[in-house]
Amino acid sequence: MERVSRFFGIEEQHSTVQREILAGFTTFISMVYILFVNPSVLGDSGMDKGAVFAATALASAIGCFLMGLYAKYPIATAPALGINAFFSYSVVIGMGVSWQTALAGVFVASLIFMLITVFKLREIIIDAIPRNMKLAISAGIGMFVAFIGLHGGGLIVANKSTVVGLGDFSQGTTWLTVFGLIITVILMVRKVPGAIFIGMLLTSIVGAISGLIKLPTHFVAAAPSLKPTFLAGLNHIGDINTVQMWVVVLTFLLVTFFDTAGTLVGLAEQAGFMKDNKMPRVGKALVSDSTAMLAGSLLGTSPVGAFVESSAGIAVGGRTGLTAVVTGVLFVFSLFFSPLLTVVTSQVTAPALVIVGVLMAQSLKKIDWEKLEIAIPAFLIVLGMPLTYSISDGIALGFIVYPITMITAGRRKEIHPIMYVLFFVFVVFMYILNVK
């Protein structure tokens, strides 16, 4: 145990092995839904759901191991939500591209991703982002995570009259979310160690007792075969020979780049890792997630990146790579215990995500709100992420406005040249994604 502590630098981070293991469990439980959501989304494109389930678990595990053992951060990886929907509904169904060719697009994007990571272009861009914008990204992710939790738990639903509204309180599942949220809030306010994890455990127990969560008929199942998707995209790289397909590759690249960059910065802010506006070992973290994306494209899943739900593990005290390694191990085990994972419903994870949102929103107090040239783009980032349901879109809104407000305020010299480049990149990015 002492060697483990020394390898991960647990004492230096003022943590314990037990706390790191608990954080790993918490992170896994908070993001385990991706094992079921991703096969459902990619399955609509014609991909084999069992193979996607296995690819999702293995690609996530590979990224977690790299992030934990190489970068030594408590940050987990998994196929990103949103970009998987773009894969299925925009590329395959909307454009009529085969899922194999779309997978080839992910593979090519991941190779480009690796190259810009090796040449440290991603690291340079992240370091160039002003501190106030990084704080806004962290807070925005908190709002986004909380919104995901409220929606997943049934407390916030779509409403034709008001866009969104309160959920249906005649449903028992909605009350299960309310119970979980109240009990977790009480535990957090009382500063009970592992409050978020205990809250999820108690919510699962109440859900099972009340019949709102169905217990599986069996607990162990054979791991699904990867054969239908494994290396399927390699034979279709030659199909990427049109402007349309290169736009698809560029979209995979840009969305994953800024989703992951924003998530890494936000999580680093939450955990207190940022030093002089820079993230230590950011190069290793970027290599880890780009390698996971490459592995995922070969196994058969949409782009993999740093997962925002890692904030749940950080919130319970995870500060080292051991947290990510534990999460990775659980992803491997999940291949054989998939029936048991159905107990972890969105009502169970919703309270955790809401509390994490509260914790991440604390970054708001550090933003220089008295200067409008800073406050306006920061506000657009914070508001944009939950309202567009996209981390990268929220970043785009703020980064497009930032140079405009700074120049107007006579602070042109304070703008890093890369921020001008990002201005034009995001203008093109928004046009490509949102012009119908």
UniProtKB/TrEMBL annotation:
It is found in: Cell membrane. GO terms for molecular function: purine nucleobase transmembrane transporter activity. It is a multi-pass membrane protein. Its main location: membrane. Keywords: Cell membrane, Membrane, Transmembrane, Transmembrane helix, Transport. It comes from the Bacteria. InterPro entries: Azg-like (IPR045018), Azg-like_bact_archaea (IPR026033), NCS2 (IPR006043). Pfam families: Xan_ur_permease. GO terms for cellular component: plasma membrane. The chain crosses the membrane at residues 21-38, 50-71, 78-97, 103-121, 133-157, 169-189, 196-223, 243-265, 286-308, 314-333, 374-402, 414-433. PANTHER family: GUANINE_HYPOXANTHINE PERMEASE PBUG, XANTHINE/URACIL PERMEASE C887.17-RELATED. Belongs to the nucleobase:cation symporter-2 (NCS2) (TC 2.A.40) family. Azg-like subfamily. This is Guanine hypoxanthine permease pbuG.
